[in-house]
Amino acid sequence: MHKWTRIIRLMVLALLSLTLAGCSDQEKQATELRIGLIAPITGPLSKVGQSSVEAAELAVKEINNAGVLSTLEGAVRVVLLIEDSQDQPAMAVSAALTLINRDRVNAIVGPQVSRNAIPAARVAERAQIPLISPGSTHPDTTREKAWVFRVAFIDTFQGKVMARFAHEELNLQKVALLFDITSEYNQGLAEVFKATFEELGGEVVAFEPYTRDMPDVSEQLARISLSESQALFLPNYHNEVPDQVRQARAAGLQTQLLGTDSWAQIPTVYRRIVEGAYFSTHYTSTSTDPMTLGFIARYRQAYDRTPDDIAALTYDAFGLLVQAVQNQASIDPGSIRDGLAKNDNYQGVTGNLIYRGSGDPVKSAVVMQVRDGQFLFHSRIEPAKSAD
What we know:
Layout: H1 2-30, E1 32-39, H2 46-66, E2 70-71, E3 74-75, E4 77-84, H3 89-102, E5 107-109, H4 114-127, E6 131-133, E7 148-150, H5 155-169, E8 174-180, H6 184-199, E9 203-210, H7 218-225, E10 231-234, H8 241-250, E11 256-259, E12 278-281, H9 290-303, H10 309-328, H11 333-341, E13 346-348, E14 351-355, E15 361-362, E16 365-371, E17 374-381
Parallel strand pairs: 1-4, 1-5, 5-6, 6-7, 8-9, 8-10, 10-11, 11-12
Antiparallel strand pairs: 2-3, 12-16, 13-14, 14-15, 16-17
């Protein structure tokens, strides 16, 4: 009898031990803020992916080291889970599904570009997991979605900014456009620019589409060269622009070049190709804002290079999530979503972000000029100045 009593006691202790271990694991899980990052680590936009990953890892390290994030249940530790979109919409969807279904994330940061962010956002919306895209500017990313947000300004704002800048600042009357018709980002910007420039009294003398799988745009440029345009607007991705400008110069086009926020990713070795160009973007590393300067210094110390706009936007995305968790005192996805939606003024490294009942922030744009192969600050455009 004594033998069986001892065995039963050991079994009870073993079961109790397992139960306590299970409780401990659950408690640990409850104090983890699991954030998924979707970035193009491989593929043609790997530079974008590198900036996103570096900024995300820096943000997470700083948050955890500070130890200031907590909920009603206690201290919170941020766990970063990274998935590669390969700059392919299907892979972006797969990455979102993996983070949601396998990794059980509380929130997602990314994708960065619109052609990947739009389909991934649909997945997050259906799953009711908050998603913040650092760099997607196409309106469809957040349109009619309650769980999707962005850090970047939208294309309707950016397109108007550059159209007004071309017409009012540069006094241009005739402009040509070359854009990728298969990409929501490129086509959307082209259409907004065209409509705004014409409303202002300017003339779009050439509106030339191309497709990503056909990098030779000599036929389009030949037609543009006959159009008597004063400028060429290229709302295309940074990995395509240098070659397009080379082809344009070879075709005899020496007109003013205009671009968009993707140009901020053009590598230093290619910047002299777009000498003299103006483009809109989200932030400048020459800012005098103390918060921005602090971020730049910490990023340089960590990675020995200056953060680009994607790095700054990604860093702000993590800041927004942290603020939402702090304000709601909860890591529940629904609470995080509510915290993001209620955000009426976030002081970020890319400027002040104000959300007024949508996932799109009200924020300023920066116009940069390329001089001596460097991106130099030209002017800041506030939202009110680009309004209709």
